[in-house]
Structure formats: C-alpha cells, structure tokens
Design goal:
Structural class: mainly alpha
Number of helices: 3
Order of helices and strands: HHH
Largest sheet: none
Distance between the termini: 37 Å
Number of strands: 0
Helix content: over 70%
Length: 80
C-alpha cells in the first residue's frame, strides 16, 4: 500500500513539476518530510537494524527527489 502511494505521489509530482516548476518544490518538500523523519529515527536503532530501517526510508526520499527534478528538467528542455 505504501509503495503504491509513493508511486502515485511521484507521478503527480512529475506532472506538477512539468506544469508548475516553482509550486512543485513545495509539494516535493511536503512529501519528503515524513520520510526524512523516519530515516532519522530508523538510524537510531542499534546495529544492522538501524541501517536497514534507514535504507527503507531513504529509497522513497530518493524517488521523490528524482521525480521532482526530472519533471523540472523536462520542462527546461521543452521547446515552448
């Protein structure tokens, strides 16, 4: 369920980044915030569990950042 939500959020973010690059930064930060908090809390767990939990939250953050930047880059390359 969470994976599907992240995928839908990334698709919405790409479209918004292409149509309104400035507004997409706010949405990108809003989607990034919960995963950032989870990543920090996961890193506090002891041993290998900490790195595993941290990685579980860093992957969606990376996807959100990449989808936003790809949409803005596509807008910059558009001929109009």
């Amino acid at each position: 369920m969470l994976i599907a939500a992240v995928i839908v959020f990334c698709v919405v973010l790409v479209v918004l980044a292409f149509l309104a690059p400035r507004l997409s930064r706010y949405l990108q930060r809003a989607g990034d915030k919960p995963f950032q908090i989870g990543e920090r809390k996961g890193a506090q767990a002891p041993g290998g569990l900490g790195s595993w939990l941290q990685k579980a939250f860093s992957k969606p953050r990376k996807a959100i950042r990449k989808s936003g930047s790809e949409g803005r880059e596509g807008r910059a390359k558009a001929p109009f």
